[in-house]
């Protein structure tokens, strides 16, 4: 029996998490879609403003209600905003965890989305034994974020209030991204909703296989282009068979973001020493290495393998296997 899906999608306001969550729930036929804002309202009805003043403010201006603001004197405004946001979210997290507990107990799939899903604050490990739990943080470049933020503010007819706080929301965006990377939570750049969904599905669905490639360092960009850029796939690890070693040299890489992959290739080309080091490793393994790769669906996985083969990147031993 399949474990129930518990999918958590966090981001700052205006990134597009509600749209992504709705589309992902539809794609996976998940009927339970919950916004953390609704959970927060329930908690507000239980815990009053005298006890939790930050809870009764918005996530982006919770810092104005911090009781111990003097503790942050001398620190940056960004630190104060992050402290207020974290204090605000900390009152909502226990209720979110209770929702997850109930979903897991009932074997119900659920998608939960909201700004309160702060990596490091919510404990997902305690659900991993009984649920297929996946945590994502969505991100966007600042100009894209601002455009969406303005549009959303006008749509919900609270434009005046919200538009004043774009800076605070951007600070929260960066704080969520930093915490996600620190705690190993995938950060998905939501530049295109279809690409975003496919990248998330490459984590959620177990459409993975091992593939052995043989190519020089110069063709690393071709591998990235086929697996990640064209098909929304993910490179989980890389293994190099080194002569004289009983086990291959293996490294977890978990590369899924096209921009990040392109930056890696660019840095490699701009650093002769780094490139030489990788070329030495390739030489030791005769340019042969294996990857575990994942794709959004079985058809895409087969298409990736076909394109790698047609591009002359797949390794074949002397027996033709």
TrEMBL record:
InterPro entries: 3H_dom_sf, 3H_domain, P-loop_NTPase. GO terms for molecular function: small molecule binding. Residues 211-313 form the 3H domain. Pfam families: 3H. NCBIfam families: PRK12338.1. This is 3H domain-containing protein.
